[in-house]
Write a structure and sequence with these properties.
With 230 residues, the protein is mainly β. The protein has a domain of 111 residues. 13% of the residues lie in helices and 42% in strands. Strands 5-1-2-3-4-6 form a six-stranded mixed beta sheet, with no helix packed on it.
Length: 230
């Protein structure tokens, strides 16, 4: 039995490719992230040895009598006060100077040919000078508040937290993400902690609007830029 192959016309293939590219450009994508995953988890069930639910007592929300509301279990929430301020400055200078000189005299000696060069004086000088200066300064401020979720509890009691806040605007969406390791001793009674007290902190502020897309090089430009030598 002869196998039949379907041959697509070239113009139809070009139309399909153009439509796929158009749809991919219209769909808003979530910016990639480097924060710890997952960014949220469900609370773990409590042990079955706890008393059953009653008219007032509830297993899901029960806490010991002298225990506060600070986060300590997987699924608990914790408020992060983002207060990040970095400032850096760098200044460098380089200076090099080099000079060279040489001179030569031709004495007058009787009987030598090329008498026109006898008694002549030759002198050569060269010099090289280089001077370079560089200066760089940067300053960043990031303040805000974000509530994250405890996604893991380490054997020493430290909490691995992660979370995300999405803000939808007319021009697109903004994403504020945070993750890191929190020492329970730094958590205040209001269940908050400063971002400067979080270890391995990863803070992101990204967006997927058309303004951000306009600043990104297209895939065709990146393709040619990857192998063009100029």
């Amino acid at each position: 039995m002869k196998e039949e192959r379907i041959v697509w016309p070239l113009d139809l293939m070009l139309v399909a490719l153009f439509a796929a590219l158009l749809l991919s450009g219209c769909v808003a994508t979530t910016p990639p992230t480097a924060v710890h995953q997952p960014m949220t988890v469900r609370p773990e069930p409590r042990p079955a040895t706890l008393p059953a639910n009653g008219s007032i007592y509830n297993v899901a929300t029960a806490r010991p009598l002298f225990e506060d509301r600070r986060a300590r279990f997987i699924g608990d929430t914790l408020t992060i006060n983002i207060v990040e301020k970095t400032q850096a400055a760098k200044k460098s200078g380089t200076k090099a100077d080099r000079s060279y000189g040489a001179s030569m005299d031709v004495p007058a000696i009787a009987g030598l040919p090329l008498k026109t060069f006898q008694g002549a004086s030759f002198e050569a000088n060269s010099g090289t000078k280089f001077e370079g200066k560089g200066e760089n300064a940067s300053e960043n401020n990031f303040t805000g508040t974000l509530t994250v979720t405890v996604i893991d509890v380490y054997p020493n009691g430290n909490l691995l937290v992660s979370g995300e806040k999405q803000i939808g605007l007319k021009e697109g969406e903004e994403f504020i993400r945070f993750s890191g390791v929190v020492n329970p001793n730094t958590i205040t009674a209001a269940n908050t902690v400063q971002s400067t007290q979080v270890a391995d902190a990863r803070i992101e502020y990204k967006a997927n609007g058309f303004l951000d897309s306009a600043q990104v090089m297209g895939w065709l430009g990146r393709f040619f830029l990857s192998f063009l030598p100029f």
